[in-house]
Batch of 3 targets.
Target 1
Amino acid sequence: MPHTLFISDLHLGAEQSHITQLFLRFLQRIAPKAEALYILGDLFEYWAGDDDLDAPLHRQITSALNTLATNNTRLFIMCGNRDFLMAGELAAACHATLLSDPTLLDLYGTPTLLTHGDMLCTDDAAYQDFRQQVRGDEWQQRFLSQPLAQRKAQIAQMRTMSASEKQRKTMSIMDVNEEAVAALLREHGYPRLIHGHTHRPGRALYHLDGHTCERWILGDWDKRGNALHCAGQECRPIELD
Ligand code: LP5
Ligand code: MN
């Protein structure tokens, strides 16, 4: 049956070789059966800029994605909060289309809104301030004009800071804000919503203004992988190992 797969939050990096192997197997055995694969952010542990495409891990991943996408599975990639510097060269290397966040899609007749999910975490004010700064064109141009090694060192510092900040934040601060979800659903005409980022896989239902909307939350790839499989009107999570 024609179907589409959604994944996010793989956080691939040199230290996650088990997950990299799992992902490569997924690209060879499971993804080719899908009409389309959507990666909804944080494919990589971090992305320092498209001039880092030559790193062996990056070549391995982009070439496997390219093989998938040049056969029968269309490939779409959205940036996450870790890899928002992914741009045109990365997309070209993967034969993928980069998606803006959010993106509304007609999925087998059901309007479906895709987002990484971090924009919905509006209670996390410190993160939203950081996000606003680093998503600006001027900041990105300045950051990307530095040598790659210097950028990586700054990202490493930021990752350490993020890990310690997260220890001080409550779980509810780091989850989506329900009013932000409702506002997004209203703004886009009450679609189905699919996102990642919070690493709390599941399904929630919203009854809003006489409409019922499904929200699917993708899990991260930690010990195992997971994907959302959508065919016709139905979506269901699948575990990968
Ligand atoms: O990703 P994760 O799970 O660790 O946590 C996120 C939020 N943290 C981040 C930061 C990224 O992890 C860091 C890597 C990004 C690489 C991008 C390249 C360019 C950046 C280079 C920076 C110099 O996204 C975390 C959320 C959590 O999700 C849950 O939603 O809480 O947010 C934070 O930890 C942010 C802190 O709360 C605020 C930090 C303020 C630091 C400001 C100094 C840096 C100034 C430089 C930028 C102008
Ligand atoms: Mn994320």
Target 2
Amino acid sequence: MPSDPSFRLYNTLTNTVEPVVPREPGHLRFYACGPTVYAYAHIGNFRSFLTADLILRTAQALGWRTTYVTNITDVGHLTEDDLSDPSGEDRMMKALRSKEGQRFANIWDLARFYTQALLEDWRTLNLREPDVRPRATEHVAQQIRAIEQLVRQGHAYETRQGVYFHVPSFPDYGKLSGNREAGQLDRAVRDVVVDPEKRDPRDFALWKKDEKHLMQWYSPWGWGFPGWHIECSVMAMAYLGEELDLHTGGEDNIFPHHECEIAQSESLTGRPFARHWVHTRFLQVEGEKMSKSAGNFFTVRELVRPEHEGGRGVDPLALRMALIAGHYRQPYNFTLQTLKASLKHVERFREAAANVEAALEAGRPGEDRLGSRLEALYTQALAALCDDLNTPEAIARTLEGTRLILGFKEHLNAASARSARAWMERMNALLGILAPEHEAPPAHAPDPFAEQVEALLREREAARKARDFARADALRDELTALGIEVMDTPEGPRWRKKTRL
Ligand code: AMP
Ligand code: ZN
């Protein structure tokens, strides 16, 4: 099938909405920046991953072939975005030293644990699997080769602390973000270890020499580890070739991460790296930036875990729907209200699906009274997604079709029900909000925090039984200090994390 020029997306590189034109007609090759696996991914991360998922689904609905690569960053991503910690420490190392990290025997176990958790959350939210999910730690040899080549080409140089990309060697630097001058680059300055031998404040690290780092590799520059930016360039080109059709990430990736990816990749190959750059605006919760201290920070599992396990028992489909309900280029405010509305809609999808199954079983004769109307709604929903991923519009068409199906109540005939079933399947392939697509995800790996809370609760119950009320109160205080709210119910104590949602 030829490339359909009507699939249009905003391109950060050109600041316009323009057609997605795969280099090989009808075959979209794209890369999405994946998570740094130092903690559970939060719902903001998933807003960005969902943009990539919807691009994938739209391309597939158009009949295109897709090669979709999204990585796991398990080394080298520093804390540079964290204003309170400008020291540029590896996030993985920092996580290992934290209270939660101490239960891991080593940094590799920590990476494995959060990678597994990510894969579970991915399936829970109905995201389609990528063709390749490369890990940075498994591509270090290729990264070393790329850095060696950049040094040979005169784009990079070595100091006593590491190897840097020399920004003035790439005149196009700044073409994505507009940040060209050193004065605009305070974030880039924080991005690197402060090194007096750096030749330009904008130069960023490709390799860090560090004999104490818990993940280290031997390189022509001694022991150390790669920088975050080179990881993505190398993994993207390893699986997609030197020229990508499209590259995605969250808005914070525009600078410095993607600007640096462009500089390295285009210096290596002399060709345009990715033609289309798509960035998702940040998700906020109840009108504010998500942060642990503000009590409005949510991981997927906190929301979907059953209530008796301290979660909020949110239906994963409703969570997915709430996360895509806003247009990806608008700042999005995630609220309890949107979540409740999504839940109502998901319940209606289920009701419609049940009516359809009952009608198929009953087998009432009659003409198909739904097929052509539903087909038109599908076409409109696909057109909406092709129009810069207009998810609110596509969801509205889904609700309209559901209303039509439900309008027949128990009078749905078999022919109409067959059309309805086919339509629901196609709509689900497009948006992933009508029914789970994966087999039930495996039981979640035990959550150490939940285990700690439950142990304290058990101890408190035992103290109460033994009428040791002073001890029971002390344990309750300990739970409060952990930010846990305990509700005593006839079935025993229930708990949940205090939040503002
Ligand atoms: P990280 O794990 O920090 O490397 O982030 C993984 C992806 O999530 C990146 O593409 C980020 O840009 C994106 N991201 C982080 N926070 C948010 C947020 N609040 N809303 C949307 N995307 C986000
Ligand atoms: Zn990346």
Target 3
Amino acid sequence: MSIDRLRRFIGDMTSLVGGAWQDRDEAATLEVGAKLLGELVLHDDWLPEQAAKVPSHGYAQNLLWCDPFERFCVVSFVWAPGAVTPVHDHQMWGMVGMLRGSETSLAFKPDAETGALKAGTLTELKPGDVELLVPADGDIHQVTNALTDRGSISIHVYGGNIGAVRRHTFDVKTGEPKLFVSGYTNKEQPNIWDRSAETRAAS
Ligand code: FE2
């Protein structure tokens, strides 16, 4: 178990948002970012215990890192068995990488005439898979832990400080949006900077 993978991922993402994303090139940011996240979630040996604790119900949103300029953040979503989110949007780009277990994401689009939300594509994520959320293409969805007998964990990366922005949940029947600010479950972030063991080993 090593947090090195997370520290390297944060470094790579910081380079990316200083380049492609600074140029407002969302497609390039997501293309490269998805590869980086895909590599991160291919290995399940780095997420600290405290950010992987399965809640008794619902889901925990643990902030692992927020860029100092709030250009991106990294969050571990830990799902109780069968947990379901409300139908919601994000107000920024997002990437969801499956680390442990499995989840489903059901996309919704407003009906042009009635405004009601209609269910669309159902995406199932397995460990190593990455799903992209692009507001311009429609990013309203509902996420469910596909497993009913144990927890699941996905690693989310967003193009901002997702827990602190105004976004929406929706009434599916009417399409009516309701403002919400999700916040974060944890009060403390993991320490990615204690590299003393490798320094000692090298001396
Ligand atoms: Fe979402």
